[in-house]
Amino acid sequence: MKRRKKQAIVSLGLTVNNEITKVEFPAEMLREWLCDLKLAPEQQTVKFDFKIDGKQYSQDFNITTDLPTIKRAVKCAELLIDIVPKSLRKYLTDVTQNFSRENVSAIIGREEEIEKAWFYLSQNKRNNVFLVGDKDVGKTAIANEIARRIAINDCPKEFYNKRVLMLNPELLLKIESNRSYKRKIDKLVDFLENNKNVILFIDKVIYMKTDIELLYVLYACLKEYNIPLIVTSSEDNFEDYFYEDQSISKYINYIYVKEPELNEVEPMVRSYISKLEEEYDIKISDKLIKYAIFTSRLSPSVSANPGRVINIFERAFLTAKRKDKEEVDKQCTVSHHTWNYTIHRAHVNHQQHQCNNK
Q1: Residues 56, 18: Cα–Cα separation, whole Å
Q2: How much is the pLDDT for 355?
């Protein structure tokens, strides 16, 4: 027996018999009504007709204030419905659904990359984007920002019905039984073939090249399924395993995500610093924030900004908490560089010791 599809319901406060009453509507019906609206440039209100117990009613909605609220309510209701099969939820995460349940701050300073991504993803063919760059430069953050904007309808109209689903190929590769692994891949392929309102996000796409089954899934997404695809890759892996692979490179679009200039980092990390202040109940001055960003290039970390700066603040707040301070001071910030330098020197000394013993 075919399972009945769960219906998303939206509750609206409407005026019925001169009283405000909560009325429930199928989200699909409201979405169709919103899509069919034809608004004149000077129009300020729109009429909504509905039935209760066989009686016809109508309600005027303000275009500027009411319609955006209804659109968000429809989206929230739809995102409550799980579309990923239970058997795949360990490997396939509905990122858009998660963002609809959390109050997540927007990322700042990546508008050019995000606009390019919308353009590539909206194409009828070759609708994919490879985000290429150094470690912690913000590739995954851009993909998550696209999912967050879809969750609140702050996206191009063609993406209103989309869901961003993140595939974790690393977890799939950990399945020990060949039979179980093949079964999961078959279910994944069947799901992708039959769900056209999906944007597939693969973080660290290099894992897809380590197994013939996963490589087939990647090829199929690029060539056959016509599913919008977002992937992240280091620059070296991209150039060695994708750009040089003629069977893949002719199907892909790519964006190099560059490390921001120091003066661009502060607005990117401000919201994250605010979260750290709230989490640790510790303050940090604007002057010290600028100092930490300015000195971030001294760190031997392999991470790029803004990730490197975020790492500095995480350790600075943790150090301040351990020392029972009410505010992060310069010593807490510098301790990150000292710690990193100590680890770096220990690694260098270990390598030198091994060379001397050869």
Answers
A1: 14
A2: 57
Spatial contact of 84 and 92, defined as CB atoms under 8 Å apart: yes
Q: pLDDT by residue (tens digit) across 31-83? A: 889 888 888 888 999 999 888 888 898 899 999 999 988 988 898 899 999 99
Angstrom CA distances, 18 to 14, 143, 147, 277, stand at 9, 46, 40, 48
Report the alpha-carbon distance of residue 181 to residue 173 in Å, rounded: 8
Length of the chain in terms of residues written: 358
State the Cα–Cα distance between residues 103 and 120, nearest whole angstrom: 27
| Residue 239 in tokens | 């150039």
Q: What is the pLDDT of residues 241-252, one digit of tens each?
A: 999 998 899 999
Give the amino acid at 28.
E
Residue 156: both structure tokens together: 């191009």
